[in-house]
Specification:
This protein has 415 residues and is an alpha+beta fold. 26% of the residues lie in helices and 30% in strands. It has seven helices and 21 strands. It has a seven-stranded antiparallel β-sheet. A six-stranded antiparallel β-sheet has the order 7-14-18-17-16-13.
């Protein structure tokens, strides 16, 4: 059961849970498209509570195999409905009319599972606009579970996600200004400041990666040492290690119209779902025991994916974290390629990074994970970049945002 707590007519028009009619061109024929709009209507300020929505989800709706809750169900469907509705509610005018905007997902911040999610309790997703720039905005979603008398379930958020969107004019395709927000309460101002710091942090990290400031030749050489033994003297290689290339999986598919969004392109949540499924399978095949989801790192949407595109997903285990033998971690990369054989081209549309834990029962029974080693400089650089990204996360501590490594919820969760 999905409950949408809003009376905004634009939300119904977008049809979060209602199919939209499509024209022959593949574009949605929106029910409200005949309403007279003011294309250049100036944006105005709103208060964050006015842009908030809440959804209630029956856990049975997103149950996957082995009676567990699928994280792909949360990211691909239900969270997307709430964030789209929140966006439209914020970008609408008070009288229900608004200039038509293309709202495009630019990125998704790291999502860390803070506590186990129980299958017997329903979920609630609350979304609100936390930060607005000139033509971009950030939506924060919180997922909680109702205790319903269960002493094992707390009311604190199980998952917090931040989505960044950019607005484009539907006629010109250029950046379009959007309504601003006026934070009033202490909590609203705090959310704004945290989002502002995240934006600055992302820009700083991109600049460092662009100029190669984080590369360390000594670390690179040390990381490649064991991989070269595998390549040059395989009989003498460490049997507790495996080459990165030997952990790879991939799949390919044609993007179908059923997965398109209201703008006629492939829905970003669908891409996250397919990436998660491949990452889960990769971790499963590597570990030899069922993994459980812990986090997905920052996701950038580099290129749009259209209906009919030939999409290839390639995955590999980048590295394992074996410091805590009882709770080893598996870090998996999934890269999505839009392939066009007729043009002999292949472009990266997304990169996804997932972290999984391993079944603790299997660990107690003697299961041990292998070290993953790179064989080329490109692979080694990729591993170092991910390790640095893991060690440089913004976390609120004592009222301030600090760059530290977040603690993952290693307790077994049915995800």
């Amino acid at each position: 059961m999905l409950v949408l707590l809003t009376a905004n007519p634009l939300v119904y028009g977008q049809g979060c849970s209602i199919p939209l009619p499509y024209t022959l061109s593949g574009k949605p024929d929106l029910p409200f498209s005949k309403t007279p709009f003011s294309p250049m209507a100036p944006p105005f300020s709103k208060h964050p509570p006015g842009a908030g929505l809440a959804f209630s989800i029956t856990s049975q709706k997103i149950t996957c195999f082995a009676s567990s809750i699928g994280i792909h169900g949360i990211t691909s469907g239900w969270a997307s409905s709430s964030r789209i509705s929140t966006l439209l509610l914020h970008c609408s005018n008070e009288d229900g009319t608004a200039r038509p905007l293309l709202l495009v997902t630019a990125s998704v911040d790291k999502m860390v599972l803070k506590k186990p999610i129980h299958i017997e309790a329903d979920l609630t997703i609350v979304g609100a606009v936390s930060w607005v720039g000139r033509s971009s905005m950030e939506i924060q979603l919180e997922l909680t579970q109702s205790a319903q008398g269960n002493p094992n379930i707390s009311s604190s958020p199980a998952l917090v996600a931040n989505f960044t969107f950019v607005a484009r004019d539907s006629a010109t395709g250029k950046a379009a200004p959007i309504n601003q927000i006026s934070p009033e309460s202490e909590q609203e101002r705090l959310l704004w400041e945290e989002a502002e710091e995240r934006n600055k942090f992302r820009k700083r990290m991109k600049q460092e990666q662009k100029h190669g400031e984080s590369e360390d030749p000594a670390r690179l050489k040390a990381l490649l040492a064991e991989g070269r033994i595998f390549c040059d003297m395989p009989a003498l290689a460490n049997r507790d290690s495996v080459l990165m290339k030997d952990t790879c999986l991939q799949n390919s598919f044609i993007c179908q119209p059923q997965q398109r969004n209201i703008h006629g392109r492939i829905f970003g949540g669908f891409l996250m779902r397919r990436a998660f499924e491949l990452a889960f399978s990769t971790a499963y095949a590597f570990a030899g025991a069922a993994p459980h989801f812990l986090e997905v790192d920052h996701v950038d949407f580099f290129k749009p994916v259209d209906v009919g595109n030939f999409l290839r997903l390639k995955s590999c285990v980048l590295y394992t974290e074996l410091d805590n033998i009882a709770e080893p971690l598996v870090n998996v990369e999934v890269v999505a390629h839009v392939t066009k054989p007729e043009h002999r081209s292949s472009e990266v549309s997304n990169r996804f990074y997932f972290t999984f834990g391993v079944d603790p029962v299997a660990i107690k029974n003697g299961l041990r994970l292998l070290h993953v080693v790179p064989a080329t400089e490109e692979e080694a650089r990729k591993v170092l970049e991910r390790m640095d990204a893991e060690n440089l996360s913004l976390v609120k501590k004592d009222g301030n945002l600090n760059v530290v490594k977040e603690n993952k919820c290693t307790e077994k969760t049915n995800l």
